[in-house]
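Title: Prediction job returns without error message
Component: structure pipeline
Severity: low
Priority: P3
Assignee: unassigned

Description:
Job completed but the reporter wants confirmation the result is attached to the right record. Sequence as submitted:
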Amino acid sequence: MQRCRYLPVALAGLCLAPQAQATNVFRFEGYGPVSRAMGGTAAAHDVGNAALMANPATLGLSPEGGQLELGLDLVVTDIEADNLATGEHAKSSRKDLASAYYAPQLSYVHRDGPLTWGAGVFAGAGLGTEYGRHSFLSRTPDGTSTGLENASRLLVLEVPAGVSYAVSDRLEVGASLEAVWTGINLDLLLGADQVSTLIGQNRVRGSLVPVLGGLPGLQGAHMSVSDSNDVRSGVDAWGWGGRLGATFRASESTRIGAYYTLKTRLDDLKGRARLTAVSSVAGQIPLTGNIRIIDFQLPDALTIGVAHQATERLLLAADLSRVRWKEAMKDIKVRYESDGGGDLDIRLPQDYRDINVLNLGAAYRIGRWTLRAGASFAGQAIPDDRLFAVVPATPTKHASVGFSYDLGKSGSVNVAYSHAFRETMTNRQLPNTSAPIRVEHAQDNLVVNYSYRF
């Protein structure tokens, strides 16, 4: 079990370092350069080995024989939080290629007649902010600068193994089962007004509540659940997930596809934490202990799509997904047990909404080149009054372009670029913010992939 604990660190060295800032809440808007360039469509056309992360039935659309793929995602984020009361700005520091998030991915698929199978390691989802120690987010409501960090990092590694089978020349079915590892780092300062509101809403319980409440001059409480290493996390856990899918060739030029993504089944995320009470009288009082984030899951989703070969060269595709965030992300539930005795049970309200996601894409082949473009439109899962500055998973609109160059029998080079248009949200309400805030989030993703066939 001790060895298993360090396995994700080794995997992360291959597939996620230091972290990935995802879109459409925590997930990427498409996996692999083919799907990403075509707006995230993947239900009814060949997207390469990334079918392991989408509709496993489309594995059967891959070429005969083996196909090894090695890819890299680069993500550059532009995130700012504004204090609407004072006009101050806090910037998250990932705005150039030198500090971009990057996510290598590795997979292998083999097709032998009607049977296709494969496995891979992918960056499944992520989130990252780095506001530092000296912005208004590190200041208590009475104006005291604490010098305490405000940051977040969510890593999700997925290790899928999938299979598809051609039931007939028109119907393909597929399934995948995956090991899922999730790790979280979180540094968050809550002002005294936020703490008292959570207590008043019965969202904080435990023997440490009267201790905090009785501390003279309490100004806030800071929770640090983090590891400074780029790939390790403050709390982590293993679990599993999977997908079921099918495609049906309705005509010579049109294919319909559908797949269902299961809700993950993760154990509680466990690790060490430091709770720091901030007092105007006693200063900063740190307490170390064990922490669990309880029942943190990624949601189930149903996707249906169609791909139409409009001409010999032009392929058109559209997918529609329903993602059930409401059940998966109602509260962030935390249990903290101090080394010195005492505990806290905290429920941070999130109240995410179920969302619809529409993906549109096109591909045009010219000789050895295939040119692609697409767009993605999603509903906003996060209510304004539940927004945390350190959890700005807000972009909903993306545009993408890309291309492939066929190298012949040896494979192809594939590239995609997508832009998440700036999304702005405002939260003026306790308990998830003390000062009224406006958060703006835009980002750029570049995906490069080499596919080797043999």
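Comment from assignee: result matches the submitted record. The radius of gyration is 23 Å.
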